[in-house]
C-alpha cells in the first residue's frame, strides 16, 4: 500500500480539532448534505439540536483518564437517524457526493473514543433501525440497531438462545459487532470474530453505495473495525439450543483457592455460559446483595440447572462457600451485569482516580504478587475462558507514561495487555486497510480511526 493511499484513509482534508477548541469551522457542504438528507429521512431524521449533537459526539472515553485529557476531539454537526436499513445506502451516497465525514453509532456504551466523530461531519445513529427480520434453526437476522436483549428474547420464543451477548445487554447488534468483542457465552464461543457472525449486509461509502452481502470469514474486515470499512445494515448471528440457566455465587478466602475453583468451573460439563472472579476490593463497590460478601473473593458462574450439584462440589472442594443459587432471570442477569468491563464502571463510579487495562493469560491464575507490584492498589477481575483467562486490571492512575511503563512490565511477567486508551482499530489492520480502499475510497467513514502505523494487538 502506498503512503498516498494510506493517507486517504486516515487524514481527511481538515484539521483534527484540538482539545478544548471552542471555535470550529463548519465542514464544507454540510448544509447542502443536511438538506438532501432531510429529503431522504424527513425532518425528524436529521437532528441539528445542540444537545442531541453533543450527546452523539461522546462515548465512554471518559472511563480512560488518558483519553479524557484529549477530549473533546470532534463534534457532530448533524445527527442522522434512519428508521430502516433500506435508508442507509442513500445516506452513504450523499456523504460520498458531498464528502462529509460520517461516524456510525449504536448506543455508544462500550466504546472508548471509537464512536467520537474526530473530524466533525455527521453521526449516523442506527438505533432506530431495530427490527428483527427473520430467524431459523441456528440463526437470527436483524437490523444493526436491534438490541441484543431483544434478539435473545426472540430466540427464546423459538427454543433457542444467542451464542453470546455483551455485558451491556441492551447494546445494539451492530454496535457489538463493530466495536465489541465478547461477553456471556464467550467461555465456549470466544469472541464475536470466531464464528458468531453468519452473514452481514454492509453498505460502502461510494458513489452508488450498493450494499454487499458477506458470509462467515468474509465478514472479518467489518467486525471490530468501528465502521471504517462500511456500515453494517443487517446482521445474521448464530443461535444454539436454549438451556435453563441458573446463577452460582460463591465466596473464597484467598486467591489460590478462588482461581482453582474458577478453572474447575470453566471445565465443567455441561459448560457454563459465564464464569467470573472478583477480589474483595471490587465486590465492595457493587450494590449490597446477600450473594456477595464484600470481605471475600467472589466467584460467580452461570450454569445449567443440571450442573448445580457438580458446581457446589467444586466450590467446596476448593475451600469456598456457596452463598446463593439464584435461578433465571435474576441470577444469570446479575452475573452478566458484573462481567467483563462492568466492574471497572462500578469502581470508577464509586471513586475517582482509577484506570484500567484489559489483560489475559493463565499466569493470572497463579501467584500474582509481582503483577500487583507494577501499579499501586491493583485490583483484578478475571473471566474464565476455555481459550485462556482474560480480565481487567484496575489501579490508581498517576500519569500516562506510568501506564505505558507498567504495561511493558506486565508483559515481561507474561501478562497479555490490551490498552483501552486509544481509539484506533487494532485488529486485522492489513485486512481493514485493504477493504477500506474499496469500500471507503475517500476516507469518510469514521475517519481518524485507522492508524498510520501498525498498532495491532496479538
Tally of contiguous helical segments: 16
- Percent of residues in beta strands? 15-25%
Low-confidence stretches: 1-22
Which descriptor suits the 3D outline?
globular
Instruction: Supply the helix-strand structural class.
Output: alpha+beta
Using only CA atoms, what is the Rg?
22 Å
The biggest beta sheet is recorded as: 8 strands, antiparallel
What is the helical fraction, as a range of percent? Answer: 25-40%
* Mean model confidence by pLDDT: 93
Q: Count the strands?
A: 18
Cα distance, first to last residue? 22 Å
What topology emerges from the helices and strands here?
Layout: H1 3-10, H2 30-41, E1 46-47, H3 50-56, H4 65-68, E2 78-80, H5 88-98, E3 102-105, E4 122-125, E5 132-136, E6 139-143, H6 148-157, E7 160-162, H7 173-179, H8 186-189, E8 197-203, E9 212-215, E10 231-241, E11 245-252, H9 255-266, E12 274-278, H10 280-283, E13 297-304, H11 308-317, E14 321-327, H12 330-337, H13 342-350, E15 354-360, H14 369-373, E16 379-383, E17 390-396, H15 400-412, E18 416-418, H16 429-439
Parallel strand pairs: 2-4, 3-4
Antiparallel strand pairs: 1-2, 5-6, 6-10, 7-10, 8-9, 8-10, 11-13, 11-14, 12-13, 12-16, 15-17, 15-18, 16-17
Amino acid at each position: 500500500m502506498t503512503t498516498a493511499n494510506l493517507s486517504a484513509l486516515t487524514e481527511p482534508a481538515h484539521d483534527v480539532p484540538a482539545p478544548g477548541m471552542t471555535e470550529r469551522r463548519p465542514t464544507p457542504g454540510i448544509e447542502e448534505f443536511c438538506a438532501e438528507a432531510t429529503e431522504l429521512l424527513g425532518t425528524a431524521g436529521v437532528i441539528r439540536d445542540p444537545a442531541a449533537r453533543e450527546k452523539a459526539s461522546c462515548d465512554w472515553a471518559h472511563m480512560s483518564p488518558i483519553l479524557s485529557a484529549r477530549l473533546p476531539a470532534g463534534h457532530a454537526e448533524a445527527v442522522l437517524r434512519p428508521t430502516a436499513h433500506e435508508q442507509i445506502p442513500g445516506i452513504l451516497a450523499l456523504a460520498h457526493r458531498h464528502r462529509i465525514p460520517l461516524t456510525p453509532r449504536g448506543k455508544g456504551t462500550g466504546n472508548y473514543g471509537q464512536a467520537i466523530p474526530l473530524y466533525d461531519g455527521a453521526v449516523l445513529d442506527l438505533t432506530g433501525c431495530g427490527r428483527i427480520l427473520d430467524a431459523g434453526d441456528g440463526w437470527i437476522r436483524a437490523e444493526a440497531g436491534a438490541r441484543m436483549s431483544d434478539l435473545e428474547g426472540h430466540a427464546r420464543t423459538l427454543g433457542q438462545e444467542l451464542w453470546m451477548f455483551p455485558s451491556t445487554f441492551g447494546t445494539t447488534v451492530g454496535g457489538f459487532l463493530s466495536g465489541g468483542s465478547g461477553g456471556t457465552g464467550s467461555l465456549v464461543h470466544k469472541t464475536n470474530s470466531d464464528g458468531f457472525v453468519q452473514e452481514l449486509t454492509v453498505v460502502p461509502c461510494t458513489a452508488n453505495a450498493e450494499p454487499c452481502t458477506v458470509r462467515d470469514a468474509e465478514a472479518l474486515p467489518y467486525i471490530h473495525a468501528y465502521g471504517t470499512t462500511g456500515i453494517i445494515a443487517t446482521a445474521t448471528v448464530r443461535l444454539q439450543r436454549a438451556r435453563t440457566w441458573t446463577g452460582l455465587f460463591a465466596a473464597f478466602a484467598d486467591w489460590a483457592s478462588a482461581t482453582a475453583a474458577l478453572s474447575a468451573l470453566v471445565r465443567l460439563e455441561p459448560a457454563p455460559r459465564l464464569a467470573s472472579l472478583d477480589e474483595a476490593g471490587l465486590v465492595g463497590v457493587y450494590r449490597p446483595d446477600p450473594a456477595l460478601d464484600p470481605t471475600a473473593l467472589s466467584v460467580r458462574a452461570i450454569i445449567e440447572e443440571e450442573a448445580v450439584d457438580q458446581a457446589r462440589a467444586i466450590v467446596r472442594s476448593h475451600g469456598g462457600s456457596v452463598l446463593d443459587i439464584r435461578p433465571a432471570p435474576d441470577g444469570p442477569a446479575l452475573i452478566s451485569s458484573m462481567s467483563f468491563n462492568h466492574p471497572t464502571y462500578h469502581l470508577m463510579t464509586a471513586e475517582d482516580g482509577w484506570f484500567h487495562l484489559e489483560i489475559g493469560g493463565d499466569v493470572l491464575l497463579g501467584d500474582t504478587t509481582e503483577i500487583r507490584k507494577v501499579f499501586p492498589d491493583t485490583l483484578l477481575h478475571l473471566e474464565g475462558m476455555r481459550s485462556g483467562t482474560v480480565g481487567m486490571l484496575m489501579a490508581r492512575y498517576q500519569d500516562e507514561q506510568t501506564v505505558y511503563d507498567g504495561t511493558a512490565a506486565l508483559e515481561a511477567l507474561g501478562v497479555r495487555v490490551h490498552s483501552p486508551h486509544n481509539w484506533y482499530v487494532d485488529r486485522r489492520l492489513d485486512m481493514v486497510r485493504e477493504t477500506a480502499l474499496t469500500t471507503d475510497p475517500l476516507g469518510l467513514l469514521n475517519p481518524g480511526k485507522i492508524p498510520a502505523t501498525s498498532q495491532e494487538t496479538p
